[in-house]
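Chapter review: from sequence to fold.
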Amino acid sequence: MTLTNVLVVINVIAYVWEVATGGPDVDHGYLYGPAVTLHGDWWRIFTAAFLHGSILHIGFNMIALYQVGNIVEQLYGKVRFSLLYLVSIIGSGLAVLAFNYAVPTLGASGAIFGLFGALVAVGLRLGKRGRGLIGQVLPIILINLVFTYTVPGISAAAHVGGLLTGFIAGLLLFMVPSRRREAAYAYAFDPAQDPAATIEQPKEPE
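The token string follows.
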């Protein structure tokens, strides 16, 4: 089983737990600025990234995570993928604390945006070979940013924070030599198996 699929399962289990224990609500571990700074609940940055507010919320996010996560995992390998996901969670969470301090926030979409940012980083690192990948990913990012800024209740700070963090981390991690990464080139950029062609638009990221 891929690490991406494991993350999907963890998110689903967390949502079932929320519902079974009377949630979702802030007490389940939402990211909430006052709880972090006044009570030291920094762990909320991580728990919030695995919690969701409704069946539609988790449904859209898990479809997006499954699609983009498996591609990024193939390109970076499990260890670098883990670092990308972790760093994107942190970047997204810190952005929420900076710009949406008093707004309870939850959802995996900040980390998912980080994975999209990492795909753009791959495209840039590959030069001419990566232009097609960038051409596929950028419209998806732009469309979802439009949703982010026009649909009420979506955390722009989480999405943009995750996107930028994932992009920067992706640039750095893709520089690290890796035989697995070289093998991923052959798989991922085979004309018959272009990963960019498999990416579909997640309709409501958070």
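Two observations follow directly from the output. The chain has eight helices and no strands. The CA atoms of residues 153 and 206 lie 8 Å apart.
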